[in-house]
Design brief:
Length: 319
């Protein structure tokens, strides 16, 4: 049987049909998915030596690609910008305020830390033009900026609802509308919307937030439909219980914060870096066949409910 690396090289050759016939369907699909043309949309595949010394094609993660990340001064946005930067992307990290805040981009990297209020079209246009002029058209957009407000539904004002929708939904909408044309012009791009597990269910006291995140989830689907034919993949991540200033009091210990999540399958809170890994996947060619996809990064919080009286319940399940 052919080694995987040999098979991959042959599949890329003009004799693909003949070689395929010597592989099982499963082998063919596995090889094609790992090495095939679908993964190489931006033509940046690299080669490298495998353990056995054979040269194989690798998926490009994000090396050399221009990425815009919103809300990057804090929490998840900061971790996402740093992760993309470490992986070789040219990251334009942005936030509504950047004065006096350390850049999430490593020193020596090419990226920038720029002011961008996601509700402001002028800010978006300026950052888009700046990125394009300095580094080329953006390939990656991560709509991460968000705000949270707690109040009972009957005490929530229209202004409070509008303020949340403005940042969490309209901010991402303006971002997509501004950046997608640059991606469309070159026929490729990846947009990742940071939604929430509150876009799959609801939390009491957070009706405005929940509404904004369900809206963003819907926008993700609509954008995936309309932008997919232009070569732009649009996907969503639903984090839940991530240790960031949005949901965690600065004075809280790790143990105290984890304790809030003691009854979910993974029994702890998540880290911003764990969300950044999922973003890296959706931003890169590794997710080349994902459009309109949703990834839960929530420690299993929304997987289901434990019934203590039924088999398989863990000791911490409440009766
Ligand atoms: P965070 O509060 O640490 O970071 C949010 C960032 O967004 C801040 O740097 C803030 O300045 C920025 N921002 C707010 N309004 C902005 C605007 N108009 N323009 C530009 N930037 C703005 O919070 P975290 O947790 O890192 O939140 C990131 C995203 O993840 C948000 O969309 C949030 O809704 C979402 N999320 C967070 C969860 C969690 O458990 N921490 C769970 C589910 C979703």
């Amino acid at each position: 049987m052919a080694k995987r690396s040999d098979a991959a090289a042959r599949i890329c050759s003009a004799e693909a049909g003949r070689v395929i016939s010597s592989l099982s369907l499963g082998q063919y699909l596995a090889t094609k998915i790992q090495f095939g043309r679908y993964a190489l949309a931006e033509g940046q595949a690299s080669t490298g030596a495998h353990g056995d010394g054979h040269q194989v094609r690798r998926f490009n993660m994000v090396d050399g690609r221009v990425a815009i990340v919103t809300g990057a001064a804090s929490g998840m946005g900061k971790a996402i910008a740093a992760r993309l930067d470490r992986e070789g992307a040219i990251v334009i990290a942005t936030d509504r305020t950047i004065d006096g805040i350390a850049s999430p981009i490593g020193t020596g990297s090419h990226g920038l830390f720029e002011k961008l209020d996601v509700t402001n079209q002028d800010d978006w246009s300026r950052v888009a033009e700046l990125a394009n002029a300095r580094f080329g058209p953006p390939s990656i957009l991560v709509n991460n900026a968000g705000i949270l407000h707690f109040s009972a539904l009957l005490e929530t004002t229209t202004e409070q609802l509008r303020a949340i929708i403005d940042v969490n939904l309209i901010g991402a909408f303006i971002g997509i509308r501004t950046i997608a044309p640059f991606m469309a012009a070159k026929g490729s791009g990846s947009i990742v919307n940071i939604c929430s597990i509150d876009a799959t269910k609801a939390t009491n006291g957070a009706s405005a937030y929940v509404a904004s995140k369900w809206g963003l989830r819907g926008l993700t689907k609509a954008a995936a439909l309309e932008l997919g034919p232009l070569g732009i993949r649009v996907n969503a991540i639903h984090p839940g219980g991530i240790s960031t200033p949005m949901v965690r009091d600065a004075a809280m210990t790790d143990e105290a914060f984890d304790a809030i999540y003691h009854d979910i399958p993974l029994q702890r809170a998540g880290l911003p870096e764990e969300v950044a890994e999922a973003v890296l996947y959706l931003a890169s060619d590794r997710s080349s066949y994902c459009a309109g996809t949703e990834i839960l990064v929530d420690g299993g919080a929304t997987a289901g409910k434990y019934y203590a009286q039924l088999p398989g319940a863990p000791p911490f399940a409440s009766p």
